[in-house]
From TrEMBL:
Keywords, comma-separated and alphabetical: Membrane, Transmembrane, Transmembrane helix
Protein name as annotated: Gustatory receptor
Domain of life: Eukaryota
Transmembrane parts of this sequence: 21-40, 52-70, 95-117, 137-153, 160-180, 217-241, 253-273, 332-351
Length: 352
């Protein structure tokens, strides 16, 4: 949680001054990075790839919006972390911390590779504000800093937020799956009211955590998905419209990294988060089946029957992005269809 303290995503009572200062600096740098990237890209674009450039810029704007949406929900994040104590959410902490560390290192690596592998003056000048490239080290350092902040805003920041979201959904999904297995392991005759209530109480704790997740991540996850969709559109549009063999290999690798990262971020996030409604339905079906067996054996009392009725009437839980984007596995195919439609539109536009 160190990253979230430094960025101001977690608000503590005795928050350290350096954490407050760092979060304010990050907020300012986000705005500066978005403005700088917009000016640089528009100034060096032409009519053939203007649509791709606009999509690229909107990707970064969406990433910044996801950041600020998380900052706005910092008090709710504290409540979410407290509610996690009711379920086992620490089993994969080391893996998550390692992935966050790798994600934070990638901007440094890519900034170094891009700066020192690119020698074409035309591409370097687009990042150096027109400064004289004779000042070699000054220009290289300036470009390295700019590229670092570009990659830090997207995809590093969006990846970390998506990882946090996916890990929370994974913990809830696993916890629900454990409850479902417990129901299956119970002998029908011994699955009495007290055991049913105990399982339903633990299920309610999980349900409360999921509601907190929805409250915190509803807006950020929508902007994260939008950012990745915009990036996929920008890169595919660029490759279809302007197949320039003069593009340096470092920039081509950067394009491929953007594209692969955007696709994986969408697929993995929606796949993991989409397991939550699946496990919730499995739980409901398993509990209903066990209660039905007790009813057929005539060993269920009226209170058990009422529990069964309440569970059946309980609305299906669904994670969404601001009540606009359903967070389900089927959404992956819907987004792929959207990107395919965009590709067809780009081809038809250029054909005419």
């Amino acid at each position: 949680m160190t990253f979230f303290r430094w960025t101001g995503f977690i608000e503590e009572l005795n928050q350290k001054v350096r954490h407050i200062f760092a979060s304010r600096v990050f907020d300012i740098l986000l705005i500066v990075t978005c403005v700088d990237l917009s000016i640089s890209k528009i100034a060096h674009s032409d009519s053939t790839d203007l649509k791709s450039v606009i999509a690229f810029i909107f990707c970064y704007i969406s990433s910044a919006m996801a950041w600020y949406a998380m900052r706005y929900k910092r008090k709710d994040i504290n409540s979410l972390l407290k509610s996690l104590r009711g379920i086992n959410s620490t089993s994969h902490d080391k893996i998550i911390n390692f992935l966050v560390f790798i994600d934070c290192c990638l901007p440094v690596i890519f900034a170094a590779i891009f700066t020192y592998a690119t020698t074409e003056t035309e591409f370097l000048s687009s990042y150096s504000y027109g400064l004289d490239l004779k000042h070699y080290w000054v220009v290289r350092i300036l470009i390295s800093i700019k590229i670092y902040f570009y990659y830090a805003l997207y995809p590093s920041t969006t990846n970390i937020v998506a990882l946090f979201y996916a890990s929370l959904c994974w913990c809830c999904s696993v916890h629900i799956s454990i409850l479902t297995k417990e129901i299956n392991q119970h002998i029908t005759d011994l699955f009495e009211l007290s055991q049913q209530i105990d399982i339903l109480k633990r299920k309610k704790n999980n349900y409360d955590v999921l509601n907190n997740i929805q409250n915190v991540f509803s807006v950020p996850i929508l902007f994260i998905v939008l950012a990745n969709v915009f990036m996929c559109s920008a890169i595919t549009g660029r490759l279809l419209v302007k197949n320039d063999s003069k593009i340096p290999i470092s920039i081509r690798l950067g394009f491929m990294y953007y594209l692969v990262n955007a696709i994986l971020c969408i697929v993995i996030t929606l796949w993991i988060a989409g397991s939550v409604p699946i496990e919730m339905n499995k739980f409901k079906e398993t509990f209903y089946k066990k209660a039905q067996e007790r009813l057929l054996l005539r060993i269920a009392n009226t209170e058990e029957l009422q529990l069964k009725i309440d569970l059946i009437n309980e609305p299906d839980f669904e994670l969404t992005g601001f009540d606009i984007l359903p967070i389900r596995r089927s959404t992956i195919f819907a987004l792929i269809g959207t990107l395919f439609t965009y590709t067809v539109l780009v081809i038809s536009t250029n054909a005419t």
